Amino acid sequence: MNKTWEKVLIAPHNTILEALNIINKEALRIALVVDANRKLLGVVTDGDIRRGLLKNLPLTENITSVMNTTPITAPVGTNSQLLNRLMEEHSILSIPLIEDNKVVGLETIQTSNVKKKYDNPVFIMAGGFGTRLRPLTNTCPKPMLKIGDKPILEITLNSFINNGFSNFYISTHFMPEVIENHFGDGSLLGVNIKYIHEHQPLGTGGALGLLPEDLADDLPLIMINGDILTNIDYESLINFHTDNIADVTVCVREFNYQVPYGVIAGENNRVKSIVEKPIQSFFVNAGIYAISPHVFKSVPKNYRIDMPSLMQNIMEKEGKVLMFPVHEYWLDIGRMDDFYKAQQDIFSIRFKK
Hints:
globular, CBS-domain, alpha/beta, Spore Coat Polysaccharide Biosynthesis Protein SpsA, Chain A, 10 helices, seven-stranded mixed β-sheet, three-stranded mixed β-sheet
């Protein structure tokens, strides 16, 4: 039984955000919703929260709106081998232990300390000019600007490495020698790095056509813009993409915009409703994708196309393009204000180790 299980207990009146903080903070990756007598009402995982976000539920909503009310449980004292078999059969990582209708423990699956490894290629787009960050980018590629004491690109690579990825391709254009001289072939990081040079900018999707033709036909690729600072769980992304047999999975971020005026709806000249400074919510492209091999291998060499156009082409052919909501830290370092914010945030971001 895990000794820290009581830290993941949460009351039904708590919010999705409060459950998310528990899931991200505690290694158990689960929250147990209990009443005042510790009766189990439901469990909440990362996947439950992402599904709630896709339904446009705000993070201030009660946790009961996303919790699983019929979780797998077991009586306290159940044989550990049986518990592990149950977790493997149901593809779950933990089982609440019940006694007298109360939660008295949490059993987690027994796994080795060896991290799971992924052979999936990772493609990092690092060829942009970073014009909005001049003069910082006059003599330095934007992905090589330092956040804290490390370049953005190194932070991104380390995040992938800690998630179990080791095969990297980096797309370059502006000042490629700065990037290649810093990382080399990746051997100092214990990974493989190869460089894809764009002689002319090909858009966010066109560089896919320059990847080696011999990449595996059964391993989806993760692509990310090189100016993004995030601690997203890439393992969850690739598993989501694979489990749902998607052509492309695009990571999305919730963006809220508050209209600074009272909005009036009317019919002819008659006012029907007045809403003062309403907030509108949208999902925006987070610049991170999981892409199946048949998609990235279909992009011709030296063909200019952006990812939105590529995804639109797939949808027009009735392909499967899915959304994966990002609730973790995410920042697109496109402007000077973003760069300064990243300098402040880097010390509080929790990265997977």
